[in-house]
Amino acid sequence: MTKLKKMLLSTGLLASLTCAMPHAAFADAGVLHIYNWTDYTSDEMIKKFEAETGIKVTIDTYDSNETALAKISSGASGYDVMIISNDFVPIFVNQGLLQDVGVASMPNFKNLAPKWQKRPWDVDAKYSVPWVWGTTSYSVDTAIYKGPTDSLKALFEPSDDLKGKIGMFGSPSEVMSLALLYMGKEQCNTNPADLKQLDALLQAQKPFVKVYNSDGTTERQVSGETVMHEQWSGKALAARQQKSTIKYVFPKEGAIGWMDNVAVPKGAPDLENAKKFLNFLMDPENIALQQKSTGYQSAVTGSNKFLPPDVGNSPEFNPPADLKIVFAPSCPEKATRAYDRIWTDLRQ
Q1: What's residue 26's pLDDT?
Q2: Which of 108, 131, 170, 332 has the fewest Cβ atoms nearer than 10 Å?
Q3: Contact 227, 145 (CB under 8 A)
Q4: CA dist., res. 137 & res. 296, Å (int)
Q5: Which residues contact 12 (CB under 8 A, 6 or more apart)?
Q6: Buried (b) or exposed (e) across 184-206, using 16+ Cβ within 10 A?
């Protein structure tokens, strides 16, 4: 129990706060509470789920895996399902924050492509269903920036004309995984010399960075607030659809791969509604609505045939066959603490 909870209990405030919470830890008949990244849920898909099941959906959002972990581990309750990235699934499981819902036994599990049925972060498919997957690199407005766009060097060792015009994510794990890929170093790195080099690289980049924020990445590039931005492939597609000069870069060093996953937090108010949603997502026509909305790939066989050409045939959606894609693993505590120290110094 946290110190904050002890204090609230001692003053009798915890009960009153719980009553005031919009998502109190009690089952709401016919309601599904979702906790997801900002601007990352297809309205069309949710409406289809509501129409087919009669279950009303509510959504709360966060801006990074670290934010979601901090909230759930602090004892926040009331969510039936949440979306988390592959490298954070083991962390949630090891901390006892997710419920075993037996995904492998669900009727639509058979629709998952074989390579995604046993994922390294959930080998027995106990806890999670794939949401969508994509890559992380950077996008750039080629109408303004005329330099080379074949390497991560443009992002991490930028030219003088990009000073104050670069956007980076607000998530330390995502910034550092891409930086380590550029450096040619191992992920989850604890080597003191590598960490010193990582710190120096990010500190040297800092004067060129206008903002560290994972929200609003598309809007900043379309408006011209940033010229170059660390970016997810689907968000880059959305930006290009609004501004044709924006290009998503597939660097020669490779890109970071990721898969977001749908899981059920321990103590979910309505477990049955959560299971219905997870099974719903493994239907190709359903998950295609999420793909259409976000521009990302799916783990469900046959979903791509339901996509419009501007998504399914887009360069952002179809990485080169020879692109090196590194799925960042879940890092041990030693690496996480080292990253936290670097990030804290960087943000001061």
Answers
A1: 46
A2: 332
A3: yes
A4: 14
A5: none
A6: eeebbbeeeebbebbbebbeebe
User: Could you give the angle at the alpha carbon of 33 between the alpha carbons of 29 and 38, nearest 5°?
Assistant: 160
Alpha-carbon dihedral sign for residues 324, 156, 240, 49: positive
Tell me, yes or no, if the two domains 22-133+258-312 and 134-255+319-346 fold the same way: yes
Nearest residue to 304 (alpha-carbon basis) of 285, 323, 321: 285
End-to-end Cα, the chain, rounded Å: 30
Q: Are strands 128-141 and 255-263 parallel, antiparallel or unpaired?
A: antiparallel
Are the C-beta atoms of residues 227 and 141 closer than 8 Å to each other? yes
| Burial class of residue 150 (count of CB atoms within 10 Å of its CB; 0-12, 13-18, 19+) | exposed
Can you give the pLDDT at residue 225?
A: 98
Q: What does pTM read for this prediction?
A: 0.87
Fold for domain 134-255+319-346?
D-Maltodextrin-Binding Protein; domain 2 (3.40.190)
CATH 3.40.50.10610: does it fit domain 22-133+258-312? no
User: Nearest-CA neighbor of 4 among 73, 59, 57, 63?
Assistant: 73
**pLDDT > 70: percent of the chain:** 92
- 317, 233 in Cβ contact below 8 A? yes
Q: Residue 95 CB: number of other CB atoms within 10 A?
A: 12
* Domain range annotation of the chain: 22-133+258-312, 134-255+319-346
| 3-state secondary structure at position 266 | coil
How much is the pLDDT for 28?
Answer: 58
Q: How many residues does the chain have?
A: 348
Using alpha carbons, select from 117, 37, 127 the residue that is nearest to residue 90. 127
